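Human: Here is a favour to ask of a fellow structure person. Comparing notes only helps if you start from a blank page. Give me a protein, with the fold worked out from its sequence. Please set it down just below, with no commentary around it:

Assistant:
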Amino acid sequence: MTELGETAIQDQVTALLEELEQHRVYGNDYFAFLGNTPWTDRTFDVHRANFFHRTEGTVKGIAYVCAQAAAHDDRDTLVLFSHILNEETGDGVAEHCHEILMENAHNLHGRVEFGLEPLLVREARDSELLIPETMAYRERTLELLSGNYHRMLGVATALESHADPMLQICRAAFRASRKGLGEDEFVKRVQIYFDVHVGDEGVEERHAADAKRCVVNNCRTEADVAEVAYGARETLNIQLDMWNAMYKAVAAS
């Protein structure tokens, strides 16, 4: 493969990042469903189990990026992703950990609005409501993360870029199905999970920007760009498969 100059490589990286922003995952069937169709007790139960299992891998993936950045003497990536990891784990305050906020928000909403029993995040992996595509998503992203360093950066960039629109859509769906819980309590105990990610501070947008910066910093050859591209595209493709399968699962409920 012919090696290109630094400017040409960075042009390839810019083109790749712009391409990823237009991926079909952002127009998936499930997001369209959430924008137009209220949850029922059954469809929310399906959503909760699959969302829990999907998202439970987030902190594990970020921690892996930090460990690999340290092992590769990539100080900038270690600094940026350590900051992301710290925010995901509540800035040192256990009850502010995003996984706990997620669990509490979904279970309170499920109980008040749909009469559902609580579900622990760690129990979701054994739920009969899990669809095969959610399990495939977890397995495939783990494979991609452990492939090589540049592929891992592609996975991380795809996940961080996808987070903001996903959480925006889910927050709107939660608000649309709020009937029993008072507004103040809803904001403080349910919407807080989404607001810490996509509130006025734009946390997820910053996470995505930081991940892209790490890609830019580490791409020096065409081979580097190709590995980042593979990891990112494969991650978004498997996420697209999961969301479209989720639509089929809830539409059949």
Observations:
- The CA atoms of residues 120 and 211 lie 29 Å apart.
- The mean pLDDT is 93.
